[in-house]
Every structure is written in structure tokens, then in C-alpha cells.
Amino acid sequence: MRFTTNWQCNMGKHSILSASSCERWWNCPGSVNACKDIPNPTSVYAAEGTVAHALAEEFLRNPKQDLDKLIGTTRVQEGFKIEITEEMVDAVLDYNDYILKIQQDLGDPLMFLEEEISLDLEGVDADLFGTSDCTMVVPFKTLHIFDLKYGKGKRVSAWENKQLMYYGLGKALQEDCAEIVLHICQPRVEDGFSSYAMTDEDMRQFHVELKERAKEAMDPKAPLVPGDHCRSSFCPNRMRCPALHGLARDLTVRDFSAPAVVDTLSIDHIIKVLKYEDTVKDWMKQVREHAKELMVQGENVPGYKVVQSLGHAKWIDPDIVVAEFEDEHGDSIFEKKLLSPAKIEKLIGKKKLGKDFRDEYTYRPDAGFKIVEEDKKGEAVKLIKPKDDFQS
Asked: How far is residue 255's CA from residue 268's CA, in Å, rounded to a whole number?
């Protein structure tokens, strides 16, 4: 494996048009100006992801090391103590297996790890750069961009992923390749590995569009546009954003004293509610969390109070409880059941179980219906309309 570096270091600088926030400012140009003075504090989840990325890079540089030896150890990241768990190691190994398989298929490509990729867009007065997790180059043939997503919330797709297209463009301007393949590696979600191939012409078109979007985002009067990108990009302005507040008001009530009657909603309004449901719920959650922080600090919010939240009861000393009740009640005080398929995979390992494990031993029970966007995974169910049923 050949490693190389070609970094354009921007240490100390902050890119307001960064690759990681590209999805946000691409869709909401006004967010650049709105977020510029808002601190974006880190979290334990972000710190956990950083540790996972570091492990992935370390292993790719030295695939012979035994990551299992690190399970149970801790690393301090951005003030948080992060434990390296079995789940983290499994995720890193899944990601690295995916990369090494493609690396093997490509022969001996150039590989760049944690490379800072910069863009210089004509007519855009701003620093544009970001750090790509892994890039492979087969000169004059293909360019592969890989991004590790350690989160296990919403699935991220490689399809027209703006962050990866940004990296791809930056690298394509340095290399002469006919095809660019983007890869999202999200090992902790189902079907978390996806790829999206682009031609050189596709990337040229993206280059043109990106320059226009960047110019618009740098306009101080650029509009705020609410949408799913508010939540998926963790926009720091989403709690105070007037456009998102207006969207929430429009979707839920025209006047807060008069909730919209569901049965009277038009199809157009229903589509709008479905489209922005998660975005509005996330905004409401942010408002509640902010209200709690204010009240804990002594602020009065009329009509509300802060109470102690208690979890489920736990045994102070399980051994004492067993000693007290086991003689009389025997095994009835214990619970024993087979682990779930996911836990069996984690215990034994997906490689040992084989790729046909789930097909041979598991099934997916019918859980009713759900609605998703047309471009999401799953075949549409053919339902019979009531009038069709009467005619048959």
C-alpha cells in the first residue's frame, strides 16, 4: 500500500464554506451569515466519533496491529473521556475491511489519509477546505473518496452527497481521472455502506453549481431556507432561526390557539408536513432543551417548572437480593432468553457467522406499513383503493 501526502495546510483558519457544512449552505445560503458568530460546542458523541476516526487511520497505516487489545482503554478527546468499546472496534474494522477490499481490487492505488483538500473558486472570496478521511487515486482512471460516519442515528447516503462531492472536486482538480466514486461508510446502521459514481462531466457540472451556491452564500442578504439540512447538519442557528420557526408554525398551527384539523388538511399541506416532520420535531426538541438550561440557571418560564427526572429502579446490591429470595423462589427470579440476531453477530462476529447467517436463521416480521420518500429503500406496497374493491 502506498501512502502519500499532498496537504495544503490551513492551520488556525476556519472555513465558513467548509465541506462538512456544504449540504447546509448549499440549501440555506443565509445560514453562513447567521452562524458566523454562534459558537458550535462539541459533544461527547462528536468526541467519540473523533476517536473512532483516529483508530481507523491508525489501523489503515498499520493493518497488522491488534485493535482488540485497546478495548476497555480510554482516550481523552476535547475534554471527554472516551472508552474504546468492542462496538467501536467492530465498526472501525468493518470500515477498514471495506476500504482494504477496494484497495486490493484497484491494485496499488495512491492512498491519502486525513488529507486537507482546498478549493479555489473563481469569484468567491472565502477559504474553502475540509479534511477527507481517505482518498484513493488510480492515475488517469478512477478517484475514490471515502467518508466514515460513526453515528448510528439517521442513515447517510453517498448519492449526490455534497460533502464528498466537494472533496471529489478538490481532488479531481489535482488529478486526471475519468470517474469519481464516492463512498459513505456508516458501519453502525443497517445498510450503512453506499457508493455513488460520477463522471468527469458530472463533476464539471457540480463545479459550476458549487461556485454559484458559494457566491450566494457569501451574500450578507442571502435568504434563510429551512429544511432537513437544518437537522442533519446540526446547524447551530436552528433553535433561533426565524425561517425554521415560521415553518414550524405553518405546519402545526396558523394561530397557536387554533391547531390545524388533520382531517381538513389538503394533500399539498400533508406532503409539506411529512417532508419537514423530522426537522420541526428537532427544532421543538432544541427549544425544550434550551428552556431547561435557562430554568436550571434560574430563569423563570411561566407555566413550567423543572423536576427531578428518575430512571428505572436498580438493585443496590444484586447479590443480597439473590441471597434473600433465591431459596424460596429459585430460578423464577432470573430471566434467560436468546440474544437478538444483532447481539449474536456482535458476540460471535459477522465474519465467523458468514454472509448468509441472517438469510438462514432470521426473518423480519411484518410490522405494518410506514411511509417514506420515493427515493428511499423499499418496494412500494400495492394497495387496493376502496372504490376499486367495490368494483371487483
From this structure: 19
> Based on the domain organization, do 165 and 260 belong to the same domain?
no
Rounded Cα distance between 266 and 25, Å, is 31
Contact between residue 94 and residue 187 where contact means Cβ atoms under 8 Å apart = yes
- What string of DSSP letters covers 91-105? HHHHHHHHHHHHHHH
Residue 286 lies in a domain: yes
Q: Report pLDDT digits (tens) over 262-318.
A: 777 788 878 877 877 777 777 778 778 878 888 888 888 888 888 887 778 888 898
- What total number of domains does the chain contain? 3
Domain check: are 198 and 55 in the same one? yes
Do 53 and 202 fall into the same domain?
yes
- Residues 196 and 160: beta-carbon distance below 8 Å: yes
Pair (256, 327) in one structural domain: no
Residue range of the domain that includes 70: 2-217
SS3 390: helix
Distance from C-alpha of 71 to C-alpha of 257, rounded to nearest angstrom: 54
- Better pLDDT: 47 or 369: 47
CA pair distance 115, 21, nearest whole angstrom: 17
Whether 158 contacts 184, CB under 8 Å: yes
Overall residue count recorded for the chain in this entry: 392
Check pLDDT > 80 for residue 196: yes
Whole-angstrom Cα distance, residue 188 to residue 190? 7
DSSP 381: P
The verdict on residue 136 lying in a domain is: yes
Q: What is the pLDDT of residues 100-113, one digit of tens each?
A: 999 999 988 999 99
Indicate the average pLDDT of the chain: 84
Integer Cα distance of 276 and 133 in angstroms: 31
